[in-house]
Amino acid sequence: MYQQIFAPLVLLALLFVFIVGCDAPSNVPSTPSDVVKTYFTALCQDDQNTLQEIKLDGQGVPPIAVGVARSLSADRGKITCSHTIDGDSAMVRAVFDNGEVINVVLVKVEGKWKIDRMANEQLMPASALKSDNDK
After folding, report:
1. Into how many domains does the chain fold?
2. For labelling, which of 3, 4, 52, 64 has a CA lying 20 to 30 Å from the CA of 113?
């Protein structure tokens, strides 16, 4: 009698452990460039959960910064990123269609890239992005 009750309970418990043990795929992007793209998308959408997940300090972004990001996003256009990795740190160069260039420093924490800081945040004319060979 105990086997009739005990066996299904054990199977149910094992099934529960298996389901809980399987991690759902993370929404955190895997490359530094993807993290930066995700950051600017989340910033414009005021997605505080994503911002907390990909920033090193685990903090969201103040509402005033979100407002500024939304107003700038209309002018920025599409983002193109390139990155260099040096061990557990990376630098991403984000170039927007309007010519704005932002350099972002990331660090790898527990296997995930996190935004540490913006190295610079300035507007550059598109002509400044052309090399001497392009002129």
Report:
1. 1
2. 64
- Dihedral pair phi/psi, residue 57, rounded to 5°: -80, -5
The answer to whether residue 12 is domain-embedded is no
Cα dihedral angle (23, 26, 32, 34), rounded to 10 degrees?
A: 150
Distance of CA 49 to the CA centre of its chain: 11
Q: pTM of the predicted model, to two decimals?
A: 0.65
Tokens of 33: 């460039």
Q: What is the mean pLDDT of each run of 10 residues along the chain (135 residues)?
A: 52 41 51 94 88 85 73 80 96 92 93 89 47 46
Residues 6+ apart with CB under 8 A from 118: 102, 103, 104, 105
